[in-house]
């Protein structure tokens, strides 16, 4: 069971306001989209054209991205050993140097440029900027090192960027009050951003067309899954590896304003606009 380390601004009894009174208070993220490292290189121009068109039509997406494979490639090139413990990269200060360089640098700027090339307006941020993602060590820090859980996301910053007409593109790094930086799993970070900005929907863009299950010998994406089915599929090994942090982040963020999480394949044609126009694509998880 994951720790519930952040409180949900929209839950009853929460003392944390979504954002302070400000002239951005009416600016609401339309959805939070997590783009996985598994799929980033393969995302076609058409994906970014679709995203830019949505923005031009007044939709306000917020992007949180991964980059696990690129981090591993760079660590390997530098001869720095790397390993995952329960899906989290064991992270030292030396590893963090590379994580920060790749996520906040190479990958973040690549996504910003691709959105801009498609005619959109994007602004890259890491979780350290403006203390956007405030973190604390994960419960198993003794095993995994400088990996963070999200305590709070500065929703005002996201609203401010949206109010300027830019799409925030967020790298999943965190920082604490002492200035210590943390490596945060991108699915975890995206779920926390969705909770704190009060988006109705989180879209998880990955390299598979949803949560796959073999039924009567046929492997296909489930149109929807309940929390109980997810737990059963994790226990049986039908959900494993990189799908585990996605479903865990989904179940954790489905509180307050977040009503649904959809897992989709980014290479599917016009996947975002089709989803937004109500088409059933991928796997949907609801409360
Ligand atoms: N039941 C499942 N359905 C679909 N994919 C699954 C399932 N269980 C595990 N996976 C794995 O999860 C992977 C997606 O996670 P990951 O590679 O971490 O992607 P990303 O980089 O997008 O976060 C899939 O490519 C697949 O190998
Ligand atoms: C703590 C931890 O494991 N952090 C991840 C952050 C990147 C990530 O999550 O990227 P994907 O979405 O592409 O997997 C890592 O170091 O790989």
Task: Provide the descriptors you would attach to this structure in a database record.
alpha/beta, 16 strands, AceGlu_kinase-like_sf, two-stranded antiparallel ribbon, 287 residues, globular, Carbamate kinase, binds adenosine-5'-diphosphate, binds N-acetyl-L-glutamyl 5-phosphate
Summarize the structure in words.
Belongs to the acetylglutamate kinase family. ArgB subfamily. One of its GO terms (molecular function) is ATP binding. Its main location: cytoplasm. This protein is α/β, with parallel strands linked by helices and 287 residues long. It has a single domain (31-286), classed as Carbamate kinase (3-Layer(aba) Sandwich), CATH 3.40.1160. It is 36% helix and 23% strand. It contains ten helices and 16 strands. The protein has helices at residues 37-40, 45-56, 68-77, 93-117, 141-144, 155-163, 186-197, 227-236, 243-253, 271-276; strands at 31-35, 61-65, 84-85, 88-89, 122-126, 133-137, 148-153, 167-171, 173-175, 181-183, 201-206, 212-215, 218-221, 224-225, 260-265, 283-286. The strands form five sheets. An eight-stranded mixed sheet has the order 5-8-2-1-11-15-16-14, with helices on both faces. The protein has a two-stranded antiparallel ribbon with strand order 3-4. Strands 6-7 form a two-stranded antiparallel ribbon. Helix 2 (45-56) crosses helix 4, helix 3 crosses helix 4 (93-117) and helix 7 runs parallel beside helix 9 (243-253).
The coarse overall form would be: globular
Total number of strands: 16
Percent of residues in beta strands? 15-25%
* Major beta-sheet overview: 8 strands, mixed
Helix-and-strand structural type: alpha/beta
């Amino acid at each position: 069971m994951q720790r519930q380390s952040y409180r949900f601004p929209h839950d009853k009894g929460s003392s944390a306001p979504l954002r302070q009174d400000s002239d951005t208070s009416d600016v609401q993220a339309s959805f939070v989209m997590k783009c996985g490292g598994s799929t980033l290189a393969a995302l076609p121009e058409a994906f970014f054209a679709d995203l830019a068109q949505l923005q031009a039509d007044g939709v306000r997406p917020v992007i949180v991205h991964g980059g696990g494979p690129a981090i591993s490639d760079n660590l390997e090139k530098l001869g720095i050993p790397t390993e995952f413990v329960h899906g989290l990269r064991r992270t030292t200060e030396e590893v963090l140097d590379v994580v920060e360089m790749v996520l906040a640098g190479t990958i973040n700027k690549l996504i910003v440029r691709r959105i801009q090339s498609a005619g959109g307006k994007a602004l890259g941020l890491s979780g350290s900027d403006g203390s956007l993602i405030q973190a604390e060590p994960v419960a198993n820090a003794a095993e995994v090192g400088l990996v963070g859980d999200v305590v709070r996301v500065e929703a005002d910053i996201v609203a401010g960027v949206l109010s300027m007409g830019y799409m925030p593109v967020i790298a999943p790094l965190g920082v604490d009050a002492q200035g210590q930086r943390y490596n945060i799993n991108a699915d975890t970070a995206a779920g926390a951003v969705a909770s704190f900005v009060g988006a109705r929907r989180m879209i998880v863009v990955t390299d598979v067309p949803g949560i796959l299950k073999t039924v009567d010998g046929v492997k296909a994406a489930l149109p929807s899954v309940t929390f109980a089915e997810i737990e059963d599929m994790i226990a049986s090994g039908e959900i494993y590896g990189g799908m585990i942090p996605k479903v865990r982040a989904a179940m954790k963020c489905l509180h307050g304003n977040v009503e649904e999480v959809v897992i989709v394949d980014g290479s599917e044609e016009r996947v975002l606009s089709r989803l937004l126009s109500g088409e059933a694509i991928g796997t949907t998880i609801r409360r």
